[in-house]
Design a protein that fits this description.
This protein has 98 residues and is an all-alpha fold. It has one domain. It has six helices and no strands.
């Protein structure tokens, strides 16, 4: 029920919360070592080609659209600075536009 979901989420905007968590994970993925399993999976690309038609949205595409929507231009530098990235993630929980 919607009432129960609102109660569990604490009346937070669940879409913004999910997008912020996605940004937090994106920062983590970019900070881990190059030989970790997470990095290998993130950088893996299939040998097959995509089917015809409009391409499906990838996780990476959604994250990059969130970054551009928040007008973060130097995201690579921000990710290396954990406290700065954490502040941006907290800002995303309240300010991402749908």
């Amino acid at each position: 029920m919607n009432e129960e979901l609102n109660r569990l989420a604490g009346n937070k905007n669940i879409i913004n919360y999910i997008k912020a968590q996605r940004l937090a994970w994106f920062g983590h993925v970019h900070r881990v070592l190059d030989n970790s399993t997470v990095t290998k999976v993130y950088e893996w690309s299939p040998a097959l080609t995509r089917s015809l038609g409009r391409p499906k949205n990838r996780w990476k595409d959604d994250v990059k659209s969130d970054i551009t929507r928040m007008k973060i231009t130097n995201w690579k530098d921000c990710i290396r600075n954990r406290t700065k990235w954490k502040k941006l993630v907290e800002k995303a929980k309240t300010s991402l536009k749908l």
